[in-house]
C-alpha cells in the first residue's frame, strides 16, 4: 500500500514539475527574451525590415528578392522562388542533371541580358543558389559583372555604379568570418534614387 502511494506521489510530482517547466520554458522565457530583444535591438527583433518613403514594408535585409527588371542588380538564383515562408534548396551534386540544366538556364538568361560580359568572367554566385535559397547578398564581383548592362539600361555612368557597389560592400563578419558581400535590395534601392 505504501509503495502504491509513493508511485502516485511520484506521478503527481512529475506532472507538477512538467507543468512548471512548460510554463517557464514555453511561455515566460520566450516572453522575457522577446521583451529584451525589443528593448535592446528592436529593428533586428522585428526582422530587419526595410521601408519605402511612404512607410510601407518593401522587404527585409535578411531575405533575398527577385528583381525581374534587368535595369536593376540581380540576386542569386533561388530554387524556392524567394518564398520566405520556407527555406532550403535541393542539395544537388555537381554531377546531377537537374543542377546542370538549371545552371545552363541561368547561363542562357545571363547571355540574353548581358551579351557584352563573357561567361568566363561570370561569378558562380549568379548561377547557383545559396543553401537556404534566400540569401540576400551577392559577391562584389557578381555586382561588378552586372554594371555594363545596368549602365546601358539606366544611363547611370559605370564609374558611378562601381562607387555605388563599393559603398554597399559589407566586410567580413567581425572582420574574420565569411567574404565581402553586397546586399542586393539595399543596392537597388540606392540605384533607384539615381535613375
TrEMBL record:
Major site of localization recorded for this protein: membrane
Keywords: ATP-binding, Cell membrane, Ion transport, Membrane, Nucleotide-binding, Potassium, Potassium transport, Transmembrane, Transmembrane helix, Transport
Compartmental location: Cell membrane
Entry superkingdom: Bacteria
Topology in the lipid bilayer: Single-pass membrane protein
Keyword Membrane among record annotations: yes
HAMAP family associated with the record: KdpC
Subunit structure: The system is composed of three essential subunits: KdpA, KdpB and KdpC.
Family designation: Belongs to the KdpC family.
Physiological role: Part of the high-affinity ATP-driven potassium transport (or Kdp) system, which catalyzes the hydrolysis of ATP coupled with the electrogenic transport of potassium into the cytoplasm. This subunit acts as a catalytic chaperone that increases the ATP-binding affinity of the ATP-hydrolyzing subunit KdpB by the formation of a transient KdpB/KdpC/ATP ternary complex.
UniProt protein name: Potassium-transporting ATPase KdpC subunit
Biological source species: Tumebacillus lipolyticus
Name of the encoding gene: kdpC
Amino acid at each position: 500500500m505504501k509503495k502504491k502511494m509513493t508511485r502516485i506521489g511520484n506521478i503527481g510530482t512529475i506532472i507538477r514539475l512538467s507543468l512548471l517547466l512548460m510554463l517557464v520554458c514555453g511561455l515566460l522565457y520566450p516572453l522575457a527574451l522577446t521583451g529584451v530583444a525589443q528593448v535592446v535591438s528592436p529593428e533586428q527583433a522585428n526582422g530587419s525590415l526595410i521601408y519605402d518613403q511612404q512607410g510601407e514594408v518593401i522587404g527585409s535585409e535578411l531575405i533575398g528578392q527577385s528583381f525581374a527588371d534587368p535595369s536593376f542588380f540581380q540576386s542569386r538564383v533561388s530554387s524556392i522562388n524567394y518564398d520566405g515562408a520556407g527555406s532550403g534548396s535541393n542539395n544537388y551534386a555537381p554531377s546531377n542533371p537537374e543542377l546542370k540544366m538549371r545552371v545552363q538556364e541561368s547561363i542562357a538568361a545571363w547571355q540574353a541580358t548581358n551579351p557584352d560580359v563573357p561567361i568566363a568572367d561570370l561569378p558562380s554566385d549568379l548561377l547557383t543558389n545559396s543553401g537556404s535559397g534566400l540569401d540576400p547578398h551577392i559577391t562584389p564581383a557578381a555586382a561588378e559583372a552586372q554594371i555594363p548592362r545596368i549602365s546601358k539600361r539606366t544611363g547611370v555612368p559605370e564609374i558611378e555604379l562601381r562607387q555605388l557597389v563599393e559603398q554597399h560592400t559589407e566586410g567580413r563578419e567581425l572582420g574574420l568570418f565569411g567574404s565581402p558581400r553586397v546586399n542586393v535590395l539595399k543596392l537597388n534601392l540606392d540605384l533607384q534614387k539615381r535613375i
